[in-house]
Amino acid sequence: MRRSVGAKIYGVLVLILIAMAMVTGTALLLTGRISDELEDISHRLLPLSDAVARINTLVLAQMLTVERLEGLDASRDAGARDSKAMKTLDGTIEETFAKARFFLVSPGGGRTTGERFHLETELDEVKAAYESFRRHAEMLVEARKNGGAASIAFLSPELNRLQAEVDGMVAAFRRETEAVVDKRVAQADRDEKVLLLVNLLLALLAAVVGFGTAHMVIRGILRSVGNLVFGTQAVESGQLDVTVPITSKDEIGRLTGSFNNMVGELRLKERIKDTFGKYMDPRVVTHLLDSPEVAEPGGERREMTVMFIDLQDFTTLSEKLPPDRLVETVNRFFTHMTEAISTNGGVVDKFMGDAVMAFWGAPFTGPDEHAALACRAAAAALEG
């Protein structure tokens, strides 16, 4: 599948963003757990423990009120005030029990069903013990009003025992609550450590994956560009046998393929020059390769200069000279003629026996100079 360079770069960015999103999501999840733990402690468990402690204080106040009512020197007015105070304390205790239960059963009041059920059972037992204490206190107050000394003697120790039982249950409930608080604090501490560790590991993973992928993409791009630079330098130095390997299917890969095709065409043209340059003027070959349209059928009329030159009395000379001397003489003649013609901008068209045909004209010479150049070539030829 072809992927452009831009797609590869954007792919790396998307991968890094995904890794960052994973880090952020994990951090938010663990931070939320820690926040829930701390909120549970500060908004539920600690107020719950304080409410139960206040219940214990109010029960103790009720106990003191009952003891005042038992006093033999208590006046009727004082008894009425203490009875009213007993009812007020009872209402306050009921409200405090309701608040404690609200803290316990409200959403998040217990992170596990078993934990909340256990604390709720403990609170019910505390309330049941308080109800027993309250009923005995009311019976004791009634006995005091009715002057029942025997009932008072029986109920007073029992009331003390019930008050001590309530006190013990409240202390036990607070210990249970403190244990839950300690558990939550420990859990929050563990979650905080896990948060730091997970964030560190995910950040390292994101860095490794992101930079690793970016390194591979950039390395591939640089390798392809480096191959193209090497190939370009080789062609610039005249090495046309170079082929750049195609290592990708993106824009750089397609550019590498085009470069190889271009070098192949240059190599073919150079071979054509080398081959046909042995038989005709290299400028003609170069012009045909650079402007192939000139080889198309048709043509146009132009003014040109053509020169024919040969060896005087060649027939007589060939009869007198041995073959090797004759070949040497003809080669020297052709060499001198070719140099004289080429030096003055002419093109050797053909060799005909001992004669040479050459021409001057477009596209190798201008229309106002071809005649003069031909004359100079003829003069140079005669000087030899």
Query: Termini distance?
Result: 70 Å
SSE order: HHHHHHEHHEEH
Mean pLDDT: 75
Number of helices: 9
Largest sheet: 3 strands, antiparallel
Question: Any overview of this molecule?
Answer:
The chain is mainly alpha-helical. It has a 3-stranded antiparallel beta sheet. Helix 1 runs parallel beside helix 3, helix 2 packs antiparallel against helix 3 and helix 3 packs antiparallel against helix 4. The radius of gyration is 57 Å and the shape is rod-shaped. The chain starts with a helix and ends with a helix.
Summarize the structure.
With about 375 residues, the chain is mainly alpha-helical. It has helices spanning about 5-70, 75-105, 115-145, 150-235, 250-275, 280-290, 315-320, 325-345, 370-384, and strands spanning about 305-310, 345-350, 355-360.
How does the SSE layout of this entry go?
Blueprint: H1 5-70, H2 76-105, H3 113-146, H4 149-236, H5 251-276, H6 282-290, E1 305-310, H7 314-320, H8 323-343, E2 347-352, E3 355-360, H9 370-383
Antiparallel strand pairs: 1-3, 2-3
Helix pairs in contact: 1-2, 1-3, 1-4, 2-3, 3-4, 4-5, 5-6, 8-9
Question: What brief labels describe this structure?
Answer:
384 residues, 3 strands, rod-shaped
